[in-house]
Amino acid sequence: MKTQFRAVVGVLVIVAVLIASSRAPASAQEAELAYVTNLYSNSVSVLDTMTGLITAVISDVGNWPRGIAVAPDGGRVYVTRGGEFASIEVIDTATNVIVTSIATGQGLHRIAISPDGCFAYATHQQTPGSISVFDLITNSKIGSLPAGDHPTDLVVTPDGREIYVANTNESTVSVVDIATATILASVPVGYRPFSIAISPDGSVVYAGSTGSHSLDVIDTETWQVVATLTEGLEPRAIVFSPDGTRAYSANGDFNTVSVIDTATHTVVAALATGIFPTGVAVTRDSQRVVVANFDSNTLSIIDSGSNTIVSTIPTAPQPLGVAIRPAVPLPSPEAGVQSLVGMVDQLELSGDLTHGRATQLKAKLDQALRALRQVPANTSRAQDRLLKFISDVQKMIPQHLAPEMGQPLIEEATSILDQLKATS
């Protein structure tokens, strides 16, 4: 299966690219956010991993949200749903709004995204097993891959060529070649494997088996088990830290998270969590670990440096899966205003704004830029010019500017205003 290049046209897409490309690096960053599926409350909670605050609850995801994964660029979150009306719900992380729903035809369990962000792979927990394949450009199901009996969890290798999938009913891990849709190997592991993770460098896979309370280490070069861990494990979910030095196992029945040294493949700590932890994820800086405690309706935050739980946060009922959206650099106010200029230019070129009205808007932006470039910056004048810009755009909607064209201008200007107010 090969990734195909697709031409994307349209003013809205061009506008989005202008926003992203014009944003210069800045010292400030948005927080790393944890997205958590809440199985029986049919929602997704959004946790700020630094403050420990729930910043949003996305309540319209539908019945039985289970698996969750974040796109490599952090722009989308993908949530699998079970039940009669199964689907993958796609969340825009900029707005925390569901932007589309991908029909799946059957209930899904866990999900993994290809390294290029173009494909999603999801397990079915059926006999015989299979992995569904979804095109994330067209948001459609495009095929399936083979698996063993009752596949539960899966990971994609860093090069995007293979999938490792835990087959619960036959106690194996299948190695699946994506391009040829064939099983390359079937690796015997512990009894009833339920969770799986791959190291950042792709050299080893950890397969956790709830039936035998064990974790097998698979060498991805030889497809052989090279070590087995049994100390205090009941792995409902496993994750490697992005720096590759640690792995974490959420041990449901034991109400703990095990900390594993990946150099020696040994358990170095066991931390008491809430009741029945089922999900675990690590921030991109490897400093914080977020745990979903299914039966106590809480989230635990672990400081990885001290191996201590620093916060326990109440959340919606039955938190199940966790995925981390990385921190996103915030644009400087000046770069943000420059992106607005580019957006207005594009609307003029496309004919969605007349030359006169585009000139009117750019005059306000030019005045804001001049104020920001003063030494010291005249932020109050810049704010005033941006407010006038927003007012002008609002007056042009809908007679002279379509709402879907004008609203992104207002949202971008408002975001810059908020940043200026926070720093003034």
| Envelope shape | elongated
- Determine the strand fraction and express it as a percent band: 35-45%
Averaged pLDDT: 89
- Structural domain tally: 2
Helix fraction?
A: 10-25%
Q: Radius of gyration from the CA trace?
A: 24 Å
* Count of DSSP strands: 28
Q: For this entry, what is the oligomeric state of its chains? A: single chain
Under CATH at level 1, the class of the largest domain stands as Mainly Beta
- Output the number of helix runs: 5
* Low-confidence runs: 1-28
Q: What labels describe this entry?
A:
alpha+beta; single chain; 424 residues; four-stranded antiparallel beta sheet; 5 helices; elongated; Methylamine Dehydrogenase, Chain H; 20% helix
What features would you describe in this structure?
The protein contains 5 helices and 28 strands. It has 424 residues and is an alpha+beta fold. It has 2 domains: 296 residues, YVTN repeat-like/Quinoprotein amine dehydrogenase (Methylamine Dehydrogenase, Chain H, 7 Propeller), CATH 2.130.10.10; 91 residues. A hairpin with a 5-residue loop joins β8 and β9. α1 runs antiparallel to α2, α2 runs antiparallel to α3 and α4 packs antiparallel against α5. It is elongated, with a radius of gyration of 24 Å.
